[in-house]
Design goal:
By secondary structure, the chain is α+β, with helices and mostly antiparallel strands. The protein folds into 6 domains: 100 residues, Rossmann fold (3-Layer(aba) Sandwich), CATH 3.40.50.20; 137 residues, D-amino Acid Aminotransferase, Chain A, domain 1, CATH 3.30.470; 70 residues, Dna Ligase, domain 1 (2-Layer Sandwich), CATH 3.30.1490.20; 112 residues, D-amino Acid Aminotransferase, Chain A, domain 1 (2-Layer Sandwich); 110 residues, 2-Layer Sandwich (Glycoprotein, Type 4 Pilin), CATH 3.30.700; 74 residues, RNA polymerase II/Efflux pump adaptor protein, barrel-sandwich hybrid domain (OB fold (Dihydrolipoamide Acetyltransferase, E2P)). The chain has 18 helices and 39 strands. It is globular, with a radius of gyration of 28 Å. GO terms for molecular function: ATP binding; ligase activity; metal ion binding. InterPro entries: ATP-grasp, BC-like_N, Biotin_BS, Biotin_carboxylase_complex, Biotin_carboxylation_dom, Biotin_COase_C, Biotin_lipoyl, CPAse_ATP-bd.
């Protein structure tokens, strides 16, 4: 692409928060946006906020967001002159970029050749070496025979990694610590690479066990200018997926930082790179050395932290560069201010092996005064078809300590209902002393939580506050309880006014509530008592005085199908407590609860990947009966009891709803 390119309408070939982010960039430059969406995203915010929107297929990504012809047809139908791929999906697909340009449209990203070259890890490392960028020792040859790979593995020595040439996100990667395991590691890495990327090629690379992940943001125009916009650290990862990103990279020798930045610019210049891109490195603090890892030829998920410390709008410059504009700044113009942290917010339950969460968001109350890039709002439905990340929280402060403190404060004020999120887990990472001291690396999570992470439960005072918030929601201060509470208001023991009872859904004994807003007393099942004077629930804030000392907590009270959920700000973060009234408790007992011991049900919506049993099979409790795919993850669903399979309600390929019956068992005691 050379010279000025004219377009006034941009099709965004993506969804969720990144689609909304690109829409903001378009509005800033007076450009119209076109959203393409799947059937599952018909009611999503990014669709409603676009200037034009076109449905391009079914919920499965292959039917919509990966459907090249449907996307190009949408561009033609709406008169879009350019296509922005966002990140994920087709963003690093050289064939897609070439198809966009062949259709006479502008691809908002690098040249297809640059995408293809950097998309091959083997070619990318060769290009890095040619540009004088350090790479890890290893084997990246064309001979992919078992004999050659095993020969090179022996020469390299352990530990080493087998990695897919076309890989990413940890797929097609195997760690080998014993040479005897090398044949199986190579075979399984090849198989996964072929399945995930359509390319079985692998390479070998020395493993740096305590390395950090440091990356450099680059920006190149079509006139030969390439700048770096500083560096980021993304070392806190789970299964090679980033959790928390920050800029600039902390605890990095300035000489090393300067060399990393200069090397990133050299590589981008060597391949004629245009648009925004990221050069990623492994940094070995023990050796004081860095090594080229890969180049991401797209906008990164973590680009907001770079924007925060530089004040440079990366999406705006992607659009300007795509129009042929030269960069209007020099390297000396790029200044760095303070420290920024981004927290990836995902719909998952970290306490249950990061089990994906799906459902309707019934409460969405993010903190004020911080940047939140999100694809959802109250009423949005989080389904199983796409990645679990639904938002990113970005904070900026004068220094790293202040940024950590501000991030924790923001999480503590974030209330969400209907769908579980990983906020409490992210808060635990931010508050961990090893994170503050920067002792972590890419494989450090097991050391941070050796016994695994568990979410802290509400203490007796927080439980009392939650019950008070519910009580005040149902009985506004000053109202007569007899007028307001109906059938579940009971007469209390002698010498006490009427009492209300609230059950924590995990306990058998209730919390008893006496008095009114002027003096409200909660008595826990264990007898602990707390009295709040002038108790009030005003909007989303619970306030009052305890022993004359005022307090104020954020509190949201939301109705669930069989109980109430109270989201309460506590010293340990935002908690969610499920409470039942006496009426709820009676209804629960009358229906016998929701558990069915001999029936395996889907814990969430998903696609059935495998059914591992047949009618008449005898199984043990805990045996895997069904494998369900949801949010790109495979969930093994175990038998709830031992017994014989009597009914199978699903087959591989079926899409099932949450709580749908899957397998019926005749329990062992009956047989």
């Amino acid at each position: 692409m050379a010279g000025e390119m004219s377009f006034t309408r941009v099709l965004i070939a993506n969804r969720g928060e990144i689609a909304r982010r690109i829409q903001r960039g378009c509005r800033k430059l007076g450009l119209e946006s076109v959203a393409v969406f799947s059937d599952a995203d018909r009611d999503a915010p990014f669709v409603a906020e676009a200037d034009h929107a076109v449905c391009i297929g079914g919920a499965a990504p292959s039917d919509s967001y990966l459907n090249v012809e449907a996307i190009l047809e949408a561009a033609r139908a709406t008169g879009a002159g350019a296509v922005h791929p966002g990140y994920g999906f087709l963003s690093e697909n050289a064939g897609f970029a070439a198809a966009v340009e062949a259709a006479g449209l502008v691809f908002i990203g690098p040249e297809p050749d640059a995408i293809a070259r950097m998309g091959s890890k083997i070619e990318a490392k060769a290009a890095a070496e040619a540009a004088g960028v350090p790479v890890l020792p290893g084997y990246r040859g064309e001979d992919q025979s078992d004999a050659r790979l095993l020969q090179e593995a022996e020469a390299l020595g352990t530990p080493f990694l087998v990695k897919a040439s076309a890989g990413g996100g940890g797929r097609g990667m195997r760690l080998v610590s014993d040479l005897g395991d090398a044949p199986e590691a190579i075979a399984s890495a090849r198989a996964e690479a072929q399945s995930a990327f359509g390319d079985p090629a692998v390479f070998l690379e020395r493993y740096a066990p305590r390395a950090r992940h440091v990356e450099v943001q680059v920006l190149g125009d079509t006139h030969g200018t390439v700048l770096h916009l500083g560096d980021r650290d993304c070392s806190l990862q789970r299964n090679h997926q980033k959790l928390i990103e920050e800029a600039p990279a902390a605890d990095l020798p300035e000489a090393v930082r300067d060399r990393m930045r200069a090397a990133a610019v050299r590589l981008a210049q060597a391949i004629g790179y245009r648009s925004a891109g990221t050069v990623e490195y492994l940094y070995d603090p023990g050796r004081g050395e860095y090594y080229f890892l890969e180049m991401n030829t797209r906008l990164q998920v973590e680009h907001p932290v770079t924007e925060a410390i530089t004040g440079i709008d990366l999406v705006e410059w992607q659009l300007r560069i795509a129009r042929g504009e030269p960069l209007a700044l020099t390297q000396g113009d790029v200044q760095f201010d303070g420290h920024a942290i981004e927290i990836r917010i995902a719909a998952e339950n970290p306490a249950e092996n990061f089990h994906p969460e799906t459902g309707e968001i019934t409460l969405w109350a993010p903190p004020a005064d911080v940047r939140l890039d999100t694809g959802v709002e109250c009423g949005s439905v989080v389904g199983h078809h796409y990645d679990s990340m639904i938002a990113k929280l970005i904070v900026h402060a004068p220094d790293r300590t202040g940024a950590i403190r501000r991030a924790i404060t923001a999480i503590d004020a974030f209330a969400v209902g209907g769908v579980g999120l990983n906020l409490a887990y992210q808060r635990a990472l931010l508050a961990h002393p090893d994170f503050a001291a920067f002792r972590h690396h890419t494989s450090y999570l097991p050391e941070m939580f050796p016994g695994g992470w568990t979410e802290s439960s509400a203490d007796h005072r927080d439980m009392a506050f939650a019950a008070m918030a519910l009580h005040l929601r149902l009985v506004p201060a000053g109202a007569s309880p007899w007028e307001s509470l109906g059938s579940w208001r009971l007469t209390a023991p002698a010498r006490q006014s009427g009492a209300a009872f609230y059950w924590d859904t995990t306990k058998d004994e209730p919390i008893r509530m006496y008095g009114s807003g002027s003096g409200l007393t909660a008595i826990q099942p264990d007898g602990q008592t707390i009295t709040v004077e002038s108790a009030a629930l005003t909007g989303c804030r619970l306030s009052g005085r305890i022993d004359g000392v005022p307090f104020s907590r954020i509190a949201y009270v939301v109705r669930a199908p069989s109980h109430w959920r109270v989201h309460l700000q506590t010293p340990a973060g935002m908690t969610a407590t499920d409470l039942r009234t006496l009426e709820d408790q009676h209804l629960q007992r009358a229906t016998g609860g929701s558990g069915v011991a001999d029936l395996l049900s889907a814990p969430m919506p998903g696609a059935v990947a495998e059914v591992r049993v047949a009618l008449g099979d005898r199984v043990k409790a805990g045996d895997t009966l069904v494998v369900l795919e949801a949010m790109k993850l495979l969930q093994s669903l175990p038998a709830p009891v031992a017994g014989v399979v009597t009914e199978i309600y699903c087959a591989p390929g079926d899409t099932v709803a949450g709580h749908a019956p899957l397998i019926k068992l005749d329990p062992e005691e009956n047989t």
